[in-house]
Amino acid sequence: MSQTRQLVAIMFTDIEGYTALMQKDEKQAVLIRQKHRDIFNRSTTECGGELIQYYGDGTLSVFKSSISAVNCAIKMQHCFQQDPVIPVRIGLHLGDIIRTETDVIGDAVNIASRIESLAVPGSILISDKINDDLRNQTEFETKYLDVFEFKNVNQTMPVFAVANEGVVVPHLSEIHGKTEERIGKSFKSFKRKAAVLLVILLAFIATLLLTRPANIGSHELNDLTIAVLPFNSLNQDESSETFTDGVTEDIITHLSKIQHLQVISRASAMHYKGTNKSIRQIAKELNVNYILEGSVRVNDNQVRINANLVDAASNKNLWANNYDNTLVQIFKLQTDVSKDIANALKIRLSETEESRLNNLPTNNPEAYSVFKEGQAFLHRGGGKVEELKKAELLFKRATELDPNFCRAYVGLAETYLEYIFWGREAPKEMLAQASIPALKALAINSNDGATFGALGSISYYKYQKETAMLYLKKAIEINPSYVIAYDKLAWIYTFEGNVKLMEEHFNKVIKLDPLSTKYIGDMAQAYYYLGEFQKGVDKMDEYLKSFPGNNMLVWMKASNLSGLGKYEEAIELFTSRSVASNTNWMLGYCYGMIGEQEKAREILEFQLNKKKMVYVPPFMIATIYMGLGDIKNTLDWLEKDFEVGGQGLFFWGLKQDVKFKPLMNEPRFQALLNKIN
Q: Model confidence over 327-370: pLDDT tens digits?
């Protein structure tokens, strides 16, 4: 019997639930099978495919190219979705087959069958070889699912789903097929295992980076940019989500210590939690070379970590695999992990860098878990007092569980600084409290970038410019992707009147954290202090196209409009916001400036009454009095603001703030400026 060998794209299709339907309604089942065959035959012929055989409710066919096969599969699924709907699963693989006069055989056929078994009705699942052929074809969208171990196949196989419109993309929890048993069930002893789980994950990332082909991803050092997307938790326990997010953050923090590697911040990366966007689209939005994605599943003392590294320029998957291990005594891996990552990216580590990367977060899993909970509350943003207080208590608890846990002390210091940023507590009191854990962290570990970042922020709020700059530059030296340090330096250059360095540092901030409106808004407010009001307005108009109606950006645009003297336009924007639209202190100022005294005083009374219950920065009240033209009360409240520590961002800019230009000849105002400049 003659045989020929061919490289082809292999397609399996199958009607889900056909056997049960046959038993329930034989006539309907026959009609559905006939419609399936009619659609299959027509589409296969149009796309240049060849039917090999029917088998019951399924088919096996081959195509000369991956593109033809995928086009055919999409066309068929669109037809199958029309009434009466036929629940068809489709699987595709590219490989060698051996053809005889009556059959086709080969491992590739077996793999295609296994891939089809994973599919759900309406979906098209493909192997990594098919996906590689599609990567430069813009008409196709695919989504990475997982790595699977198929029965009777001696290799793990990355599987992707076609994600074009009208095609179902299955969730991992829906996937069941002809695979080896996968780790699953409950998420027990979750918190006790948290610390060691991270190290396994980092070890696996190092492995996949090291084993990438040498001719792929040959970016220059200054082009090495990576985004770590939120890893998916495959456990059903709700508490696993918080921890898995924390794992993502720690990967980001760890990779950020490597010189020459620019790592997108957690704030921007977390925007893609649960996203359906393609890797190509995400990489374009974040402007990165590499995307790392994956999942974590834990069962008792076993952990499975799955990861996929993508070169965004070519949309090629550099590596995808899974990694199984026990949660036992593996902290010693972290040193090798760090070195491996640097080697994979062709970066030579200095002795100092190696020393920094050798530091473990803690040897106490419970302290680590509590710390991650504290970070979750701290990073929710918005400055809600109840969340900041929870973060404060959790960080304190972490330091009690491990008195040498440097990052927990830093987290506590950062929490106190957030009280200041959002104007929730008096700065002087918060700075005193923040200094204690920050200095404790420095004593424990003098090679931690976040420690110097916290110390730099404290000095910044104390108007200690030179000290702040030393700390902040040290933070960047240790951690080149430390966004907060760039942000604070940008503000210092703003108050020095240095537009070039301000823009340079804010552009760096936005490159590392492109989706954080907090920092985008900061840049607009910096333009305000520099008197570049129109630039601030234009910058906000640009970003409001991407973040329509964002409260922070609307506020900053309105602030710059007030600098231009366009108070009516500013008022319209202030009152359009979804929060504090009628009680905002800058709104009160603008009302005062156009002679709407009654409206301005209503907001003033609101703020004065609010101050009886919670902390309100005196600077805000002074601003409303300034709009009303009440010089005495303006100076009284500015002096009160300085007494409680000042609102760093606003108070340090008094000399450049156009609102207070009429006070320049006032001796009391000059005395204030002398204290802070």
A: 333 333 334 434 444 555 565 666 666 666 666 677 787 888 89
Give CA–CA dist 350/348, Å, rounded.
7
Rounded CA-CA distance 223/225 in Å is 6
Strands (E), 255-385: 262-263, 290-299, 302-311, 316-326
Residue 408 near residue 367 (C-beta atoms within 8 A): yes
Q: What is the pLDDT of residues 436-447, one digit of tens each?
A: 999 999 999 888
Q: For the purposes of burial, counting CB atoms within 10 Å of the CB of 238, is it exposed (0-12), middle (13-18) or buried (19 or more)? A: exposed
Residue with structure tokens 């630039």?
535
What is the residue-wise DSSP string for 433-461? HHHHHHHHHHHH-TT-HHHHHHHHHHHHH
What pTM, to 2 d.p., does this model score? Answer: 0.70
* Bridge partners (DSSP) listed for residue 58: 14, 55
Domain boundaries, the chain: 4-174, 191-358
Question: What is the rounded CA–CA span in Å between residue 542 and residue 538?
Answer: 6
Residues sharing a CB contact under 8 Å with residue 195, sequence separation 6 or more, in sequence order: 331, 361, 362, 363, 364, 365, 368, 369
> Nearest CA to 286 among 313, 268, 260?
268
Amino acid type, 558: A
**Nearest-CA neighbor of 93 among 26, 165, 9, 182?**
9
Find out whether 315 and 134 touch, Cβ atoms under 8 Å: no
| Contacting residues for 306 by C-beta, under 8 A, at least 6 apart | 146, 147, 294, 295, 296, 297, 320, 321, 322, 323
CA distances from 564 to 274, 476, 568, 600, 601 (A): 42, 35, 11, 19, 23
Q: Which of 391, 456, 448, 394 is nearest to 418 (CA)?
A: 391
Instruction: For residue 84, say if its preceding peptide bond is cis, omega within 30 degrees of 0.
Output: yes
Supply the CATH classification number for the domain 191-358. Answer: 3.40.50.10610
**CA–CA gap between residue 126 and residue 383 (Å, rounded):** 45
Residue-wise DSSP of 70-100: HHHHHHHHHHHTSSSP--EEEEEEEEEEEE-
- Locate all alpha helices (DSSP H) within 513-596, ordered by sequence: 517-529, 533-544, 551-563, 567-574, 585-593
What is the domain class of 4-174 according to CATH? alpha beta
pLDDT digits (tens, 9 = 90+) for 117-165: 889 999 999 988 888 788 778 788 888 787 777 766 656 677 889 999 8
End-to-end CA distance of the chain: 93
